[in-house]
Amino acid sequence: MIDFELSPDIAATRAQVHMLAEHAMRPIAREYDEREHETPWDFINMTWQISKSAGIGPGAAKDGKAQKTPADEERSLRLVVAVEELSWGDAGLYLSMPGPGLGGAAVMAVGTPEQKERFLSRFKGDKPVWSAMAITEACAGSDSAAIQATAVRDGDHWVLNGTKIFCTSGLMAGDPKMSNGFVVVWATIDRSAGRAGIKSFIVDAGTPGMTIAKCEDKLGIRASDTATLIFEDCRIPLDNILGSPEVPKTSEGFKGVMATFDATRPIVAASAIGIGRAALELVREELKKQGIEIRYGISPRKLAAIERDFMDMEAQLEAARLLTWRAAWMMDHGLKNNLEASMAKAKAGLVVTQVTQKAVEMLGPLGYSRELLLEKWMRDAKINDIFEGTQQINMLIIARRILGYSSKELS
Ligand SMILES: Cc1cc2nc3c(=O)[nH]c(=O)nc-3n(C[C@H](O)[C@H](O)[C@H](O)COP(=O)(O)OP(=O)(O)OC[C@H]3O[C@@H](n4cnc5c(N)ncnc54)[C@H](O)[C@@H]3O)c2cc1C
Fold first, then answer.
1. Rounded CA gap, 411 and 396, in Å?
2. Interval 230-239 mean pLDDT
3. Is the shortest distance between the CB of 165 and ligand 1 below 6 Å?
4. Closest to 218 (Cα-Cα) out of 34, 404, 4
């Protein structure tokens, strides 16, 4: 049976997170947009305690030892529902929140049970902890096979060299003054093997040889840090490699590291949907103040253009949400969701940029003004069309999967 209703448990989570978003995020959203590079510690400390005790949000860590509970069966779905609410509150603050995040997703996707326990248990402490994921380099973004960073084995260690750019939470995860976090770094152990030689490595905060070179000034999500990390003869223990150190004959090994994205793309999609929903709700309220109500259930011929536009935006957002929930649901049921995760991400990233731009247009000068958060949401929206695989790259993945082409055959 197909059931689109959220379980009472997830609906309760949604209500709790919504309260947090409304009362703790919205009121400081503008402030931290304007004070880029300042860490919202009060908000972070408060949400860390809440999310740990309630078992919700990015701070609710799982490690390899934890027993599976009935709630775990819906873990991904619960997460995307919560992330939509948090991003409805504020996407920049949501991305600044501590928790296993992208790095944790990589450990979950590729790590051994021992590694899950070792690296994820730190998220259960009293102090907030971040993780980050460093893939992108100056010459390797969409084409992650072009990664130049290297990991060379030296006795009981791997030695990392290279420069990673645009790393979300790189500062909070990599600087020991900020947290006892870690950065998952993609590097090649055999450049001649191409994609098959790329592996992910855990670098603990404060490891000598890892330097945080700078934090970006950005268009949107300005409450979240985006760092450049330099690795110079950075030595990490041998068992900090995630997965096997073997270089397979084919690019199968690369699929292992790419599996991280099957978990993270629906989360990015959910964040996009939260921003889009915030924009739509605001437009509805402002139109109402001007005496314009969206009339449902009447003939489309009788609708005003603005009502049709609004309904179309709503429908697009709902389509993106259903794709996102499906990708998360598949993950919870142990089904391969590579295609569906890309579909959700591609659709939601596109829809949120369109919806927020149109929302600004609909409200005219008020939409453009800083009096409302709408112009900020338009700025915050765009990143969802860029990170975790751009719009174009996710469309390429979808085409490959549907048509049965390899990345060599369709690039
Ligand atoms: C705020 C922010 C946070 C980020 N956080 C992280 C992070 O935490 N970790 C991390 O590793 N990276 C992160 N990134 C980097 C992000 O993932 C990359 O910017 C993204 O993958 C695109 O790569 P690129 O910048 O090299 O662009 P390019 O790959 O150079 O792409 C430029 C344009 O060309 C298009 N394009 C490229 N190849 C193709 C193709 N084959 N077919 C059609 N079109 C194509 C792209 O879609 C894009 O529109 C972040 C970026 C930003 C801006």
1. 7
2. 97
3. no
4. 34
User: What secondary structure letter does DSSP report for 191?
Assistant: G
pLDDT tier at 64, thresholds 50, 70, 90? very low
- Residue 150 confidence (pLDDT) above 60: yes
Separation between Cα atoms, residue 358 and residue 350, nearest integer Å: 12
pLDDT at 70: 56
Q: How far is the CA of 386 from the centre of ligand 1 (A)?
A: 6
Encode pLDDT of 163-198 as tens digits.
999 999 999 999 999 999 999 999 999 999 888 899
Tokens of 278: 């915030």
CA distance 262 to 270: 13
Query: What global pTM score does this model have?
Result: 0.94
275 lines ligand 1 (CB under 6 A): no
End-to-end CA distance of the chain: 38
What DSSP designation does 99 have?
A: B
**Which has the closest alpha carbon to 240: 340, 344, 114?**
114
Long-range contacts of 324-327 (CB under 8 A, 24+ apart): 324/80, 324/266, 324/269, 324/270, 324/273, 324/348, 325/4, 325/77, 325/80, 325/81, 327/262, 327/265, 327/266, 327/269
- Confirm whether 307 is a catalytic residue: no
| CB neighbour list of residue 282: distance below 8 Å, 6 or more residues apart | 359, 372, 373, 374
Which tokens sit at 193?
């093997």
